[in-house]
Design goal:
Helices cover 66% and strands 4% of the residues. With 402 residues, the chain is mainly α. Strands 1-3-2 form a three-stranded antiparallel β-sheet. A hairpin with a 2-residue loop joins strand 2 and strand 3.
Length: 402
């Protein structure tokens, strides 16, 4: 017989999920109408912000303690003071986020300042997405974001959330042919969360000069090029090669054909013990967990990764004749990088997840350019697959504080 406390917790979870689903249905209706109705589309931006407003408010004013990482961040907040910067502990790991929280704490010493900062970052990301997505697909992108990255980043992984905001600015700068500015956004993203380190791979696919030598890796995926706004972009994926690329690495992960833990550690970590506060020290810590067998039950291919890659590849079919514009191209590259890094770090599940979650935010740019109804359907499936992962399989909400 279940104890009354379990019934209460189940009831709280049900109430929260019913409310969440209610607002998601509103977003879904807006996404459907704006995608299929030309007359409604001119109001798509208005309804985009109207749909997002309840989620912005919840992000800023929610009760602390209802998400899985809240307790850890409360400990960080309580222990954060000037000495952390003086001794250099935080200087090597995510210093921008720590500095912003330290600054806000000096103005208002309450844990909710983290939520206020997260809400501001959330609004910034929503704004950048309006610049990177078409009006037709904008509300569809919002639906996918709310079902996945809003819960994952804006309510839970606050440092990653700030890093993602700078990552979106990085992509926007590449869209606008401002490669110089992209260096600044890249640095800010890495200094907010070290998982953004591999964002630098994007520069290998976007070139300033049309006649510049193309790296051989890009030719494995892409077969022609275009010059857009005076900025050379290698684009138009060869779908057959792309499919083989995705399938190969996913099957490698599934059947255990990936870099061993020893190979990963020797490739990225020196023979000396790294300070725990540094990015390499963090990798070493996760490596020790993997060596202890903490991830043995997660060695098989994450089903959500397989589904996400398949759905994005399905969207690519829409571009097989007309080619990819700059935004869709960067989204496509995000899927390529996410798949590759998932293979490289398959032996360390926590690290693997951090990387592919980050780069699938960039993949929203591909979703933001889709035009046909089958791609729309793939986007809706993608949204609710993420919802199922976070709310049914993972239980990202911790409602014991209510």
């Amino acid at each position: 017989m279940r104890c009354p406390l379990k019934y209460i917790q189940s009831g709280k979870r049900a109430v929260v999920q019913v409310g969440f689903i209610f607002f998601l249905i509103f977003v879904l209706v807006n996404a459907f109408i704006s995608f299929f109705s030309k007359n409604y589309r001119k109001y798509a931006l208005i309804f985009y912000w109207l749909s997002a407003t309840p989620f912005i408010g919840f992000t800023a004013f929610r009760q602390w303690g209802i998400m899985r990482d809240d307790r850890a961040y409360k400990n960080i907040f309580n222990n954060l003071d000037l000495s952390h910067f003086n001794d250099g502990v935080l200087a090597a790991r995510d210093p921008i986020w720590y500095f912003l929280v330290f600054l806000l704490k000096s103005l208002y010493e309450h844990i909710n300042v983290i939520a206020y900062l997260s809400a501001i970052v959330f609004v910034v990301k929503l704004y950048v997405l309006t610049k990177l997505c078409t009006r037709k697909s904008l509300n569809l992108v919002l639906l996918v974001y709310l079902c996945s990255f809003w819960q994952l980043h804006d309510l839970t992984q606050f440092r990653a959330s700030l890093s993602v905001a700078f990552f979106l600015f990085f992509l926007w700068s590449l869209v606008n042919s401002n490669k110089a500015l992209s260096y600044l956004w890249y640095l800010a993203s890495v200094l907010s969360h070290n998982s953004a380190f591999f964002v630098a791979i994007f520069w290998a696919f976007v070139r300033e000069k049309r006649n510049a030598h193309s790296i051989s890796l890009s030719r494995l995926f892409l077969r022609s090029e275009s010059k857009e706004n005076g900025f050379s972009v290698i684009f138009y994926p060869s779908l057959g090669v792309s499919f083989l690329y995705f399938l190969t690495f996913l099957l490698f992960i599934e059947f255990g054909i990936f870099l061993s833990l020893e190979d990963v550690m020797s490739l990225f970590v020196s023979g000396f013990s790294e300070p725990a506060s540094t990015p390499l020290g963090q990798l070493e810590m996760y490596g020790d967990r993997a060596a202890s067998g903490n991830y043995d039950s997660f060695r098989s291919l994450p089903l959500i990764l397989l589904l996400v890659v398949c759905l994005y590849f399905f969207m690519l079919l829409e571009f097989r004749k007309k080619g990819l514009n700059r935004r869709a191209f960067l989204g496509f590259i995000s899927v390529i990088i996410a798949t590759f890094l998932s293979w490289v770090f398959a032996s360390i599940s926590d690290v693997q997840v951090r990387f592919y979650e980050l780069f699938f935010v960039g993949a929203l740019l591909l979703l933001g350019q889709v035009q046909n109804k089958l791609s729309f359907l793939a986007g809706v499936i993608l949204a609710f697959a993420y919802y199922a992962k976070l709310n049914i399989l993972w239980n990202i909400w911790d409602l014991s504080a209510l």
